[in-house]
Amino acid sequence: MTRAVLSLGSNLGDRLGYLCTGLERLAPWLVSASGVYETPPWGDTDQPAYLNSVVIVVDDRAAAHDWLDRARAAEQAAGRVRDPGRRFGPRTLDVDVIGVWEADGTPVTGDDPELVLPHPRAHERAFVLRPWLDVEPYARLPGHGAVTDLLRTPALAAQLADVHARADLTLESAR
Q: Are 7 and 98 in contact (CB under 8 A)?
């Protein structure tokens, strides 16, 4: 069995609808989903704002790469088109594998170019860490520590000012 934390984001078209598409694709393994947050773009600022959410998924037969395959299938279902010239460019749906844990709680680590675990930039992204706390208040990012401590660092605390909870939006409402 593995448990995974996945980050979902959308900033093109029906953003909430695309998040719901991702959630529906992950529904067989879904344990919980965070609230929806609106955030500025990260890495490439010349694009619309994102809606973001984090989900926890569990499968007693999945390996780490299975979560990557499922993430890509969710992106494909939302019509994701990758632009090689804009790595952090706009997208209908982005699903990142943030971390994977074995049944006994041991984090899966690896540096496969297809899937680096834990996600190599998660510790720098308030738009991932803040929603994660909704579904796992005592979350720990392997190699980086408690998510609450990470969010207290000056760089991430500054980002938090631009991470806005959208209580008016719920993933279930667009189903």
A: yes
**Which domain does 103 fall in, by range?**
2-174
User: Is the pTM value of this prediction over 0.70?
Assistant: yes
The dihedral over CA atoms of 166, 101, 118, 39, expressed in degrees to the nearest 10, equals 0
Secondary structure of the chain in the HEC alphabet?
Answer: CEEEEEEEEECCCCHHHHHHHHHHHHHHHEEEECCCEEECCCCCCCCCCEEEEEEEEEECCCCHHHHHHHHHHHHHHCCCCCCCCCCCCCCCCEEEEEEEEECCCCECCEEECCEEECCCCHHHCHHHHHHHHHHCCCCEECCCEEHHHHHCCHHHHHHHCCCEECCCCCHHHHC
CA distance 75 to 10: 10
Tokens of residue 103, six digits: 């049944």
- Domain with 9 in it: what CATH number? 3.30.70.560
Question: pLDDT digits over 47-76, tens only?
Answer: 999 999 999 999 999 999 999 999 999 999
Pull the structure tokens for residue 143: 């190699």
Q: How many structural domains does the chain have? A: 1
Residue 151's closest CA among 143, 135, 139? Answer: 139
Are β-strands 2-10 and 50-59 bridged in parallel, bridged antiparallel, or unpaired? antiparallel
Q: How many CB atoms lie within 10 A of CB 44?
A: 11
pLDDT given for residue 175 in this prediction: 39
